[in-house]
Amino acid sequence: MPAKPLSDETLHLIDAVRSALQDCSDVQEMRMFGCHVFMVNGKLCLGVEGDEVLVRLLPATHAEVAETPGVRPLSSRGLMDGYFYISPTAYATREQWQHWIDAALTYNPLAKASPKKVRKTSATAAQPTLPGQRTVKARGSDAAHHSSAAAPARKHSVFDDDDVL
Predict the structure, then answer these.
(1) How far apart are CA 15 and CA 24, in angstroms?
(2) Using CA atoms, how far apart are residues 57 and 157, in angstroms rounded to an integer?
(3) What is the pLDDT of residues 122-163, one digit of tens each?
(4) What is the 3-state secondary structure (H, E, C) of the chain?
(5) Which of 10, 71, 126, 135 would disulfide-bridge 6, Cβ 3.0–4.6 Å?
């Protein structure tokens, strides 16, 4: 079954996170936890699901952060300490937005990376991607990031305190 198309609101939010990470050198984008995530230096850092931003923060601050209005833990069972969904009310201003981006980027160097899976080499490894499979593109240069140069840049804002162009 093909993936459900993303709403314009979600695409704008993904663009906003992408812009916030433009100065990071090792950023990869992929689908995980049912959302569009941004891996920084091989570790999950931020993500977008609907109108919410997924952030990965220091697990020791989980209880404190969970009390913040507009914030909910990724897992209600306590299995994912440090992972939170941030609702639009909690990132409505540029100051709030920058707080969450900075907090996730500050924790990223301390976060543990998932161990790399060792793939078996076989004759099937040279086959093209199958339907439903996704490929991950590393973002190293502006040319690689802007692969569709003909597409116009979208003007948007995810903040209540900005005038939308």
Answers:
(1) 15
(2) 24
(3) 554 455 544 554 444 444 444 344 333 444 444 456 666 665
(4) CCCCCCCHHHHHHHHHHHHHCCCCCCEEEEEECCEEEEEECCEEEEEEECCEEEEECCHHHHHHHHCCCCEEECCCCCCCCCEEEECHHHCCCHHHHHHHHHHHHHHHHHCCCCCCCCCCCCHHHHCCCCCCCCCCEEECCHHHHCCCCCCCCCCCCCCCCCCCC
(5) 10
Tokens, residue 97: 């937005």
pLDDT of residue 102: 97
Provide the mean pLDDT of the chain. 79
Using the CB atoms, write b or e for 36-55: b if 16+ within 10 Å. Answer: bbbbbeebbbbbbbebbbbb
Note the pLDDT of residue 32.
85
Record the tokens describing residue 159, joined without a space.
Answer: 């903040």
